[in-house]
Specification:
Strand order of the largest sheet: 5-4-1-6-11-8-12
Distance between the termini: 52 Å
Strand content: 15-25%
Largest sheet: 7 strands, mixed
Shape: globular
Number of helices: 17
Radius of gyration: 29 Å
Number of strands: 34
Length: 594
């Protein structure tokens, strides 16, 4: 079995028709072109030289652009790339790569090529569909136009639609039943293989990806890949003329230009007088930037001609521009993350505190497990001897950045408690929001009632703290189902590690009537004011209230003046009742059929 890599080339839509020889793979990046970046990802994945498969008719000028890569590429397949499948052996495999769906951190081929000798069917590296806020809402209306149901889907969890295909691993034999395999259109090829009954599997991309069919996507790739660490990787023909500014030896740069890195000027490029270049930017080989031009975060293609007095921001420039303003014209950079990501909005000082807090709490948890081991041993024996089932109960909860972990407790319910929850929740749930609670829950064992009342059932969570999955103080760990209700609340609480105790547990005071609005309020309040003194106050209050048996006034924990002003430049705090009306931010809403 031999793997033959095939790299698709295309003409990005933002480029228009500047020059017939220009294509996506010839755009400059680093010290070379985008083709170099793609081929670097193939090192160790395939022994054969890659084949270029353009999705358009080519001419002599196009072939000349790849002449200098003749020792690294096998050939350019023209006219009918599908003919390639009939030239290979039935046991061979095509690794087809489409740079239009470009992973920012590159493709990891380890899982993709795993056990390829026993490969059955095709494999596809896909980018999952993403919206701005990571959620989608569907509304169902009745015949009179009234909303009957709202259903929210979280991308990466319950919304797993495929947006595009970055690479496909295709057995040659699976293409022989297709009259004209569209090798240069992977989404279409994926659908065609499924329609013919060919078995295939999808593998989500491990990193965020950008759509290089759009100008915004190309600029975003430039911002992420043109970093200072590229300097040592550049050829020796480049010199660093200013901090993070690398210029090829034969490039011509006027003395009265102003260059701000990270910036790369490739061989043969010419920059005229009084030009201002602000990085991250790249000036392709043979390009010419006219006098008095001002370019910021722009991608200047090879042999591009930028006219005098041009002003451009976050643009891809490929041809002469008659001195007009080219401001950023796109609203949102289309980044598709393969996995759910909730970036922490904490400032560096508070991030350092979180890292130090994890280390200190791990030590405290280890000491606590040692001192409390006799009590935990006695509790384990009581659970085991009084009811059927395991001693510990581990439930999947979302931790820092949404990572799932098993939250441990001493089992306080009968063995089949999870199966009965759905029926009980529909009929007897006594609290609001996503949580489920019954004052006299029939599933709780006799020993379990004592453990819950004394909070001894929470002691195994010290193991979670020791492993860095939880903190002593933080928002209550919740499963994915409970975290769906309010997007801003979810983003806030998943930006820190969940805790055994927290602000909500010691300050809540509407337990009987339902206090989900307080749950949101106190969790977001904790994240806004995260500090050592806040954690210390919550810890002392937890001990004094015997684990939150009675409420503590919020003013004792967070001063009113701090709540009014917010913290770290964040928004001012709202009241608990106002939190219930927070909007669902950046979620895409669509309509379900009634």
């Amino acid at each position: 079995m031999t793997i033959f890599p095939v790299i698709i080339d295309s003409r990005p839509r933002p480029l228009g028709q500047p020059e017939e020889s220009l294509s996506l793979l010839t755009l400059p990046i680093g010290g070379g072109i985008l083709l170099d970046l793609v081929m670097d990802s193939l090192v160790g994945a395939a022994r054969e030289k890659p084949i270029i498969a353009p999705a358009f008719m080519v001419d002599d000028r196009y072939r000349a652009r790849f002449a200098e890569h003749g020792d690294r590429i096998a050939r350019i397949v023209e006219d009918n790339a599908a003919q390639l499948a009939y030239e290979l052996e039935p046991s061979d495999v095509l690794l087809v790569i489409d740079p239009r769906c470009f992973p920012i951190d590159g493709i990891r081929y380890s899982s993709f090529l795993h056990d390829i000798e026993n490969m059955r069917g095709a494999r596809h590296k896909v980018a999952l569909d993403r919206s701005h806020g990571g959620t989608r809402e569907f509304l169902q209306f009745d015949a009179e136009g009234r909303v009957r149901r709202i259903q929210r889907y979280y991308e990466g969890h319950t919304w797993l639609q495929t947006q595009s295909v970055a690479a496909s691993l295709i057995p040659v034999s699976s293409l022989w039943d297709i009259e004209a395999p569209p090798l240069t259109d992977l989404p279409r090829l994926r659908r065609t293989l499924s329609a013919t009954g060919a078995f295939s599997r999808d593998f989500p991309l491990e990193s965020a990806s950008v759509d290089l069919r759009t100008e915004a996507g190309m600029v975003h790739l430039l911002e992420h890949r043109l970093m200072p660490e590229l300097g040592p990787a550049l050829p020796q023909s480049y010199r660093e003329v200013a901090p993070q500014v690398w210029v090829a030896q034969d490039a011509q740069v006027a003395e009265n230009t102003r260059l701000y890195g990270p910036l790369i000027v490739q061989p043969g490029a010419r920059i005229e007088e009084q030009v201002v270049l602000i990085g991250p930017s790249v000036v392709g080989a043979g390009a010419c930037v006219g006098p008095r031009a001002t370019l910021a975060k722009s991608w200047i293609a090879q042999r591009a001609l930028v006219a005098a007095d041009t002003v451009a921001n976050r643009r891809v420039l490929v041809s002469a521009v008659q001195g007009r303003l080219l401001a950023e014209d796109h609203d949102f950079v289309p980044v598709r993350s393969a996995l759910p990501v909730n970036e922490s909005r904490l400032d560096p000082r508070r991030k350092r505190y979180m890292r130090g807090k994890a280390v200190v709490e791990a030590v405290v948890a280890a000491v606590g497990l040692l001192l409390l081991s006799p009590i935990m041993l006695a509790t384990a024996l009581a659970v085991k001897l009084t009811s059927r089932g395991p001693i510990f109960f581990g439930h999947d909860r979302e931790g820092l950045q949404g990572k799932l972990f098993k939250c441990l407790k001493f089992r306080t319910m009968i063995a089949d408690a999870q199966a009965l929850e759905r029926a009980l929740a529909r009929q007897q749930n006594e609290v609001d929001g996503p949580q489920f609670k019954l004052k006299h829950d029939p599933r709780v064992t006799l020993v379990g009632r004592f453990l819950r009342a004394s909070n001894l059932d929470e002691l195994p969570q010290l193991f979670n703290v020791l492993r860095g999955q939880m903190s002593l103080i933080g928002p209550r760990p919740s499963p994915f189902r409970e975290n769906q209700i309010c997007v801003p609340w979810r983003l806030a609480r998943l930006s820190v590690r969940p805790g055994i105790s927290g602000l909500w547990q010691i300050c809540r005071h509407d337990r009987e009537s339902g206090d989900f609005h307080q749950w949101i309020y106190y969790d977001t309040m904790y994240v806004r004011h995260l500090s050592f003194w806040l954690d210390l106050k919550i810890l002392l209050a937890t001990v004094l209230t015997l684990g939150g048996r009675f409420s503590v006034p919020l003013d004792w924990i967070v001063a009113p003046r701090r709540r009014e002003a917010g913290s770290s430049g964040g928004p001012a705090a709202t009241t608990p009742d106002a939190v219930a009306t927070l909007p669902i931010m950046d979620s895409k809403t669509e309509a379900l059929p009634s």
